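Weekly structure sync, notes
Attendees: PL (lead), two postdocs, one rotation student
Agenda item 3: pending single-chain targets
PL asked that the sequence for the first pending target be pasted directly into the notes so everyone works from the same version. It is reproduced below exactly as submitted, 195 residues in total.
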Amino acid sequence: MILYLVTTNINKLKEINEISPDNFSIKSIYEIVPKNDIEENGDTFLQNAIKKAEAYKGQSVYLLSDDSGLEIDCMNGLPGVKSARYLGDTSYQEKMESILEKLKNHNNRTARFRCSAVFFDPYNSNYIASEGSVEGKISHKIMGTKGFGYDPIFIPKGYDKTFGELGSEVKSKISHRVIAFKKLFSLIHLFCGQE
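Predicted structure, written out during the meeting:
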């Protein structure tokens, strides 16, 4: 079964392919259609994930989409649903430095990564959705070069290293995206008869 992921993020595509069942082939939707600017203005990760799938639902292909972000408790859940757009058009290095500066006097550094994943079946216009999260805390400095996004400042619960230090071996087992997509693949199997 070929599933088209609505993303330009090569790292995300790789991460999802690594955990997908053998009979699923995950490709970027942009292999078959031009990129469409999708305004991610939903109030939740799920709303944004659905919005991404809806942008391409006329293609008559199975679609996958997701939205995810980092929620920091002492920042009232920010950057949250705006994680990719936090501080506007700045690098993740700048975003992480800003967060660390804001947290420098905080003892409560608890946080979580959250992901909503969506499957769209064009043949019956059904959506299937799942969610995943991983609890942890924000480090005191940027550590590690593995992964992407906020990985170098997020320490998952039960570990003493950031996702940026742990790399894909650990992240492919416990990340929010992995949890959401593993659930989603099980639901696709249940509702569509695909493993």
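Discussion points:
- Strands lie at 2-5, 25-28, 62-72, 110-121, 126-138, 154-156.
- The chain has a mean pLDDT of 94.
Action: rotation student to compare against the earlier draft before next sync.
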